[in-house]
């Protein structure tokens, strides 16, 4: 088999203005990088324990509360390590004895694995469904934490967040959904995420919006079992209240996150940001539905993610299409590898211009046509 990539040049007028369609790290708006350059000597390289940086952290915390319309008593926590680290944090600081996990893809399966491996917790309940679908939580009196994923980034399935008719905290991994999907805080206790997806910043941080019930759980579990300090949610809570992190954070990441939240708020808030992704999604899925060689992978339209689109191709090698797009400066359209499908996966986060998603579909048509000869 030849591994040579045919030299297909996409006409300039078909190309998107910005060719980044990855699902994380994802497009950082160039304007924000410009603003970062503007604070290169006043903010970068200064102490995270002083006002210059703490005021930006404070703005992130207040901005998220406003963006998500968090009710009175909610708190925004911040720490180092990203969503993956937060799973370990949660096994110590949020799950009391037993958790239930909805597992419907690579990311949503991992928190369950972390809980199963924790020797101080009982075996978790794992509720699974086929890739491309999502399961529902099952009320269970033995469970004190229901673990949901707002948007399964590996498959492009988004789920509506609904609290099960049961006691127990609802913990939501919202890493690729937060800032691009709507949600109702009354249905959730902890809404946590990393900032390199809808928030168009870099990785390495976790943020967690916590309900009063979640804060109460954090405070009650503190000191009840051994916790490494770097994973201690009570320490994170205490530091967050002072607009700090326990150890040194990446200042550029915090700055870009703050600017992206401000951009969303200035333009109309979460509704505006989510609508931008909706527009991109209508373009992408609409194209796939009327294109003979393309099909939306997620069969149920209501479960198709507005922020991560997965499109199956037939009779055209999707990996080859992605490779040719990449050679033309249109990057990160590759499918999630472990899903093992002939597929394109397209980030449609709010930072991504809906017009660029439209242009991308024209580029794919051009490449597919050229490959067919
Ligand atoms: C990207 C992603 C993660 C992992 O985030 P990290 O910042 O790499 O830890 C977890 N969950 C979901 C749903 C994701 O999309």
Overview of this structure, please?
With 373 residues, the chain is α/β, with parallel strands linked by helices. It folds into two domains: 12-28 and 269-372, Aspartate Aminotransferase, domain 1; 31-266, Aspartate Aminotransferase, domain 2 (3-Layer(aba) Sandwich), CATH 3.40.640.10. It is built from ten helices and twelve strands. The protein has helices at residues 30-38, 51-67, 82-93, 106-117, 212-221, 233-240, 251-267, 269-290, 318-327, 354-372; strands spanning 75-80, 99-103, 125-128, 145-149, 151-152, 157-158, 169-173, 190-193, 205-210, 294-296, 308-313, 343-347. The strands form three sheets. A seven-stranded mixed sheet has the order 1-9-8-7-4-2-3, with helices on both faces. A three-stranded antiparallel sheet has the order 10-11-12. Helix 7 crosses helix 8 (269-290). It starts with 29 loop residues before the first helix and ends with a helix.
Query: DSSP helix count?
Result: 10
Secondary structural class: alpha/beta
Mean pLDDT: 97
Overall spatial form: globular
How much strand? 5-15%
Question: What is the CATH superfamily classification of the largest domain?
Answer: Type I PLP-dependent aspartate aminotransferase-like (Major domain)
Looking at the overall shape, the CATH architecture of the largest domain is 3-Layer(aba) Sandwich
Main β sheet profile: 7 strands, mixed
Straight-line N-to-C gap: 18 Å
Number of separate structural domains? 2
Order of helices and strands: HHEHEHEEEEEEEHHHHEEHEH
Secondary structure: number of strands: 12
With strands numbered from the N-terminus, the spatial order across the biggest sheet is 1-9-8-7-4-2-3
Which residue ranges are poorly predicted, with pLDDT under 50 across at least 5 consecutive positions? none
Can you identify the CATH class of the largest domain?
Alpha Beta
- As a whole number of angstroms, the C-alpha radius of gyration is 21 Å
Q: What percent of the residues sit in helical stretches (DSSP H or I)?
A: 25-40%
CATH topology heading of the largest domain: Aspartate Aminotransferase, domain 2
Bound small molecules, by name, code or SMILES, are:
pyridoxal-5'-phosphate
């Amino acid at each position: 088999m030849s591994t040579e990539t045919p030299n297909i040049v996409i006409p300039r007028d078909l190309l998107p203005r910005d060719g980044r369609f990855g699902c994380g790290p994802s497009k950082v708006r160039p304007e924000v990088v410009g603003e970062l350059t503007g604070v290169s000597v006043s903010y970068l390289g200064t102490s995270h324990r002083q006002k210059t940086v703490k005021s930006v952290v404070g703005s992130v915390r207040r901005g998220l509360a406003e963006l998500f319309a968090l009710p009175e008593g909610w708190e925004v926590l911040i720490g180092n390590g990203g969503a993956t680290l937060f799973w370990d944090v949660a096994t110590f600081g949020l799950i009391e004895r037993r958790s239930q996990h909805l597992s419907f893809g690579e990311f949503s399966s991992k928190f369950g694995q972390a809980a199963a491996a924790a020797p101080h917790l009982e075996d978790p309940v794992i509720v699974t469904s086929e890739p491309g679908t999502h399961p529902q939580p099952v009320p269970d009196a033995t469970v004190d934490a229901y673990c949901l994923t707002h948007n399964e980034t590996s498959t492009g399935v988004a789920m509506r967040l609904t609290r099960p008719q049961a006691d127990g905290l609802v913990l939501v991994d919202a890493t690729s959904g937060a800032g691009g999907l709507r949600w109702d805080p009354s249905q959730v206790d902890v809404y946590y995420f990393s900032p390199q997806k809808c928030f168009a910043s870099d990785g390495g941080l976790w943020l967690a919006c916590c309900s009063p019930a979640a804060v109460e759980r954090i405070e009650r579990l503190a000191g009840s079992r051994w916790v490494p300090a770097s994973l201690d949610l009570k320490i994170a809570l205490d530091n967050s209240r002072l607009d700090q992190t326990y150890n040194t954070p990446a200042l550029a990441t915090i700055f870009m996150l703050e600017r992206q939240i401000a951009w969303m708020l200035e333009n109309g808030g979460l509704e505006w940001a989510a609508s931008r992704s909706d527009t991109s999604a209508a373009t992408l899925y609409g194209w796939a539905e009327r294109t003979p060689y393309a099909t939306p992978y997620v069969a149920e339209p209501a479960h198709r993610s507005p922020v991560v689109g997965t499109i199956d191709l037939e009779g055209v090698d999707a990996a080859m299409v992605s490779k040719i797009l990449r050679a033309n400066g249109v990057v990160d359209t590759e499918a999630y590898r472990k899903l093992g499908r002939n597929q394109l996966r397209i980030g449609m986060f709010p930072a991504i211009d809906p017009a660029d998603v439209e242009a991308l579909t024209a580029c794919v048509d051009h490449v597919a046509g050229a490959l067919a000869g």
